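Regression test case RT-17, inverse folding.

Input:
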């Protein structure tokens, strides 16, 4: 089951994200992300957060629709997005897609990306998306579908990612190691409709991106 978490970061092209909402079983709104759902004319199943960034008119809109609200204190040990991830996992969702999780605040953007590690360790398939990127993590094997105009980048998140093997990409790797900080895995090309990436040890960030 797929849960969509909508945050308050940048969303430029609302129509682009329709493909994700079409497969969602649940929509979780994080605080100021309510503005995006209102623009999309979508009703979330729940609003989560300390409600410090939501606009008054958006809160009134969700209240008028009797949306469930789970309010947290502003002084807490987790971001609202991490709380939303916990909620989705505890609700039984096996796949989580975060939309609006990337914005002008680099600290919040990175914190949201690193939540993929938490999801992976709990057996959840996670992804952060915007109009130009799909960001995923892998510790064993992942399959990525080709899309026109997109490239694929592999970035180690551990000191070394060992035994990387790729199929369906122009620059193939055959049980090779890449150290963290290396740019070797940046901007590969798809050859087949599906690329397969497997690793033996470590943690690898996989980014499907376009200009």
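Golden output:
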């Amino acid at each position: 089951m797929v849960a969509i978490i909508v945050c308050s970061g940048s969303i430029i092209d609302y129509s682009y994200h329709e493909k994700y909402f079409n497969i969602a079983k649940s929509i979780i709104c994080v605080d100021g992300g309510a503005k995006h759902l209102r623009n999309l004319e979508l009703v979330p199943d729940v609003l989560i957060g300390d409600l410090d960034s939501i606009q008054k008119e958006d809160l009134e809109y969700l209240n008028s629709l009797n949306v469930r609200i789970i309010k947290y204190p502003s002084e807490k040990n987790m971001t609202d997005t991490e709380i939303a991830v916990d909620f989705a996992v505890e609700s039984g969702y096996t796949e989580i897609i975060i939309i609006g999780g990337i914005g002008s605040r680099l600290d919040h953007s990175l914190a949201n990306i690193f939540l993929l590690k938490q999801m992976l360790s709990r057996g959840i398939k996670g992804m952060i998306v915007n109009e130009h990127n799909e960001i995923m993590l892998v510790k064993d094997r992942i399959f990525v579908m080709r899309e026109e105009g997109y490239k694929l980048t592999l970035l180690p998140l551990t000191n070394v990612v060992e035994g990387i093997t790729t199929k369906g990409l122009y620059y193939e790797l055959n049980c090779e190691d890449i150290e963290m900080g290396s740019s070797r895995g940046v901007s590969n090309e798809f050859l087949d409709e599906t690329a397969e990436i497997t690793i033996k040890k470590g943690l690898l960030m996989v980014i499907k991106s376009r200009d």
